[in-house]
Amino acid sequence: MARLLGLDDDYIMDQFGEKADTYARFSYYPECPRPELVFGLKPHSDGSVLTVLMVDDTIGGLQILRDGVWFDVPIVPHTLLINIGDQTEIMSNGIFKGPVHRVVTNAEKERLSLALFYSVDPEREIEPATQLVDEKRPALYRKVKVKDYIAGLYEHVSQGTMVIDTVKI
Fold first, then answer.
1. Predicted local distance difference test score (pLDDT) of residue 36
2. Residue 142, C-beta contacts closer than 8 angstroms, at least 6 positions apart
3. Is there a contact between 68 and 28 (Cβ–Cβ < 8 Å)?
4. What is the top-level taxon of the source organism (predicted)?
5. 35 burial via Cβ count (<10 Å: 0-12, 13-18, 19+)
6. Which stretches of the chain score pLDDT less than 70?
7. Cβ of 141: how many Cβ atoms within 10 Å?
8. Second label for 43, Cα 20 to 30 Å away, from 73, 79, 83, 150?
9. pLDDT at residue 161, rounded to an integer
């Protein structure tokens, strides 16, 4: 990704720092008799650099938002889904976008997923790479401390808003 941006090959890896975070979330979505009334997970984008998602091989439910329309993510057995996270969006000055996604419930089947989140050291600050900021493309995001950003993520998801909007210039 760094090479695609015209940055040093190790630019993104160097941002992680010595105490980068990796955390996992197992999610269980039981069958729901009225799925039109209940989200499995509200719309959000991931606050990480990158998310690796192992989705259920037999039941869908993950949707992405594109141009105001929700699309089902296809079920492809034995595959991993990779999401760009907000930290990458900030460092790339918006060239790479973290997708807004949600999980819907199913009336007939339960669903399992496992997400692995890779994040910059919480004590570090992230901002757009200086090589990606100039007169033609000014900085789109302000510098932010990672632990503050992650803390805001949970609050904003619960309110149905996007935390990335809080660091936009």
1. 81
2. 127, 167, 168, 169
3. no
4. Eukaryota
5. middle
6. none
7. 21
8. 79
9. 79
CATH number at residue 116: 2.60.120.330
DSSP conformation class of 73: P
Residue 72 counted as domain residue: yes
Q: How many domains does the chain have?
A: 1
Distance, CA of 101 to CA of 116 (rounded, Å): 16
Range of the domain at 132: 11-167
Tokens 């938002």 locate to 65
In sign, the C-alpha dihedral spanning 45, 31, 81, 25 is positive
Q: Which SS3 state, helix, strand or coil, does residue 123 take?
A: coil
Asked whether residue 2 is assigned to any structural domain, the reply reads no
Distances in Å between the Cα of 119 and the Cα atoms of 14, 82, 99, 147 are 12, 14, 16, 10
Please give the pLDDT value at position 55: 81
Q: What is the pLDDT of residues 92-115, one digit of tens each?
A: 999 999 999 998 888 888 888 899
Closest alpha carbon to 60 in 73, 69, 44, 51? 73
Phi, psi of 114 (to 5 degrees): -135, 125
CA distance 125 to 2: 18
